[in-house]
Amino acid sequence: MHQETIERILTNIGTVILGKRHELELSLIALLSQGHLLIEDVPGVGKTTLAKTIARSFGCTFRRIQFAPDLLPSDITGVSIFNQKTSEFEFRPGPIMAQIVLADEINRASPKTQSALLECMEEKQATVEGITRKMPQPFFIMATQNPIERDGTFPLPEAELDRFLMQIKLGYPSFQDEIAVMEKQQYHHPFDQLEQVATSEELVQLQEAIKSIYVDNLVKEYIVKLVEATRSHPEVYLGASPRGSLALFRSSQARALLLGRDFVLPDDIKELAISTLAHRLIVKPAFRNDGVRSVSETIIQSVLDSVPVPGGKAIRTL
């Protein structure tokens, strides 16, 4: 039942985002894991469309925040405004108070403004003027950012990066897919005809369902060994945090559910390690010649190659 719902959602999103099945699966895994997703890529590859498509597929409320250097924290969380008719202050919620939020070009805002997201992302609440307000459920932030080396951008603080469950890239479409994109948009955008195929309540049910996916102790040990290996790697100044272990643990459960299993395999861990751990590493300056992201991915791959995979006992007997 759950797999049928997931497949229906992926098929629906795939009518708009063509040829990116793997990336769509990772995006859905992040959503089902109750985490947040960071997409770093060049403009025009469909990052914004992906967020809007996911929101419409589930019928979730959707808001977009366009990050810019002059954006203030109150522009995100909301502000109290004095109502002259009632002689009282009224709170006007910011765009963060939505079920699915697109933080567009997040690294164009100052670190002070970016920090407004920390409490929202981790604790799913926002404290404004001393009053704490809960986020709606489900709550999912999909952030996009330009490559760090581009002008007019600010590197995301480590504490904020660590709160993203995954970081992925969409990449350019293939030759045939790009032709298909032009054909589909000749008369109208396929998003305009996109239908809702699930409800936000079903999404919450899926998020709860992944918590019951079985994870053997050997697989849990494998996750921790991978994370510990990043902390002792000679090219890494600061390795992945325990939050990284939890991200790999929860996302592996979501991938198992997505593939129709009720147990996690070591292959799930290997498939998700780069997406969930690479962005959490702080690489030593001497090893950043090829770009921080590419070096981090190489480090995670070397860790996967060096840490032994658990044996057959890790596979649940059905």
Report on this structure.
By secondary structure, the protein is α/β, with parallel strands linked by helices. The chain has two domains: 1-209, Rossmann fold, CATH 3.40.50.300; 213-311, Magnesium chelatase subunit I, C-Terminal domain (Helicase, Ruva Protein, domain 3, Orthogonal Bundle). The chain has 13 helices and eleven strands. The protein has helices spanning 2-14, 21-32, 47-58, 73-77, 111-114, 117-123, 158-161, 175-184, 200-209, 217-231, 242-258, 266-277, 292-306, and strands at 37-40, 62-66, 78-83, 88-93, 100-104, 125-128, 131-134, 140-145, 166-168, 236-238, 282-283. The strands form four sheets. The protein has a five-stranded parallel beta sheet. Helix 2 (21-32) crosses helix 11, helix 11 (242-258) crosses helix 12 (266-277) and helix 12 packs antiparallel against helix 13 (292-306). 37% of the residues are buried. Mean pLDDT is 89; it is low at 312-318.
